[in-house]
């Protein structure tokens, strides 16, 4: 059986407790979701931490299910740092303590990446640009302090430009960057997840030695597909961003989906309220669906799916495990 790693699963999302838009639709089925993924060959799952509270929840979930997680503050959650009852410094101290406890003697060492961190100028109603930029350097330095690979978020071209600048200002210069003199010891690497950028961005990220995570959102438009073709296989990682980023009929990648008879699909009900035990829900991605993403990426690139699966597995192992 093929080995898959899903580097982005939001398993703390209420959908896996049967709650959609604040309404209870069915019984919690997280146990079944994880079991389906493992039976599909998904041997690695990285639960995303998007805030201090969710990083705590992700860590407890990783311990419970023998998985791994990130710890960090998503750019759209950076406003929460300032709202901490004891102030921003206390928020950072608690995040550091969470990581230290996990890495320390007797710790589980489940936190294997610093993230989700980065910039998002598309959703400034959640956190203003100034707030994101103010807290990003300190978050980047946590990656350096704990020597944890970065799990990065960048949604717009402007976000990309400022993220690269912030990384360089924080001293994150890849040893692959010619003439920097930076050594391997200083570079922990990272991945820009849920990538939706341009071919120019691909080149800059790859030249920096970063990996690129692909999911359904990375495969929406014809331009996206042309960009995906430019990403070297030794820089690709696969993800679902479950429960988000499903491939719909309006996506340019829809014709590249494998036939419905393929074993990579899981059974789904059309509506959440019609959920039955042992089935998924239409539109709700699960980590088992990383096999579908692998098929689409392979078809878009015109290569065997085994090549994509093996490359992504090796890339993920090198960065995180």
UniProtKB/TrEMBL annotation:
<protein>
    <recommendedName>
        <fullName>Mg-dependent DNase</fullName>
    </recommendedName>
</protein>
<dbReference type="GO" id="GO:0046872">
    <property type="term" value="F:metal ion binding"/>
</dbReference>
<dbReference type="InterPro" id="IPR050891">
    <property type="entry name" value="TatD-type_Hydrolase"/>
</dbReference>
<keyword id="KW-0378">Hydrolase</keyword>
<keyword id="KW-0540">Nuclease</keyword>
<dbReference type="InterPro" id="IPR032466">
    <property type="entry name" value="Metal_Hydrolase"/>
</dbReference>
<comment type="similarity">
    <text>Belongs to the metallo-dependent hydrolases superfamily. TatD-type hydrolase family.</text>
</comment>
<keyword id="KW-0479">Metal-binding</keyword>
<feature type="binding site">
    <location>
        <position position="193"/>
    </location>
    <ligand>
        <name>a divalent metal cation 2</name>
    </ligand>
</feature>
<feature type="binding site">
    <location>
        <position position="153"/>
    </location>
    <ligand>
        <name>a divalent metal cation 2</name>
    </ligand>
</feature>
<feature type="binding site">
    <location>
        <position position="116"/>
    </location>
    <ligand>
        <name>a divalent metal cation 1</name>
    </ligand>
</feature>
<dbReference type="Pfam" id="PF01026">
    <property type="entry name" value="TatD_DNase"/>
</dbReference>
<dbReference type="GO" id="GO:0005829">
    <property type="term" value="C:cytosol"/>
</dbReference>
<dbReference type="GO" id="GO:0008296">
    <property type="term" value="F:3'-5'-DNA exonuclease activity"/>
</dbReference>
<dbReference type="InterPro" id="IPR018228">
    <property type="entry name" value="DNase_TatD-rel_CS"/>
</dbReference>
<feature type="binding site">
    <location>
        <position position="241"/>
    </location>
    <ligand>
        <name>a divalent metal cation 1</name>
    </ligand>
</feature>
<dbReference type="InterPro" id="IPR001130">
    <property type="entry name" value="TatD-like"/>
</dbReference>
